[in-house]
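so my prof wants the structure for this chain in the tokens format not the other one, which i didnt know existed until like an hour ago. anyway here's the sequence
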Amino acid sequence: MAHELPQIPAAAVIVAVTTEASPGQAEALARALLDRRLVACVSLRPLQSLYLWQGRLEQADEVQLLLKSDAARLAALQQAVHALHSYETPEWLWWPVSASAAYGGWLQAVLNPDAGAAVPSDRSGGVDPTG
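here's what i got, hopefully its the right format
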């Protein structure tokens, strides 16, 4: 798929959404994208979807994947999602987002480990920077 992407800074944080048919398929897709360092974090959420497909109203239990990455990886992330996905026409929505300096720094450090940026390890309050 050769879709032209808008010009946004490579380090800009992006969020993308897709759904999978089951928790197992969602986790497998999330792990594959993490292993390839195309995302820094994936949030999984079970949901019920209603949609029109081939002229019929359909209903399905699905798992939504909220993918957090950067603009430099957007094209490769889209390609991987479409190649690995179980659906014929996977949901693929994405947008650039504003992130706190701490979260954006963590995301860049995770995605670019060779750049020398330290991954923040502050666990004050017992909360990970992910999510």
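also thought this was worth mentioning. Residues 21 and 62 are 5 Å apart (CA to CA).
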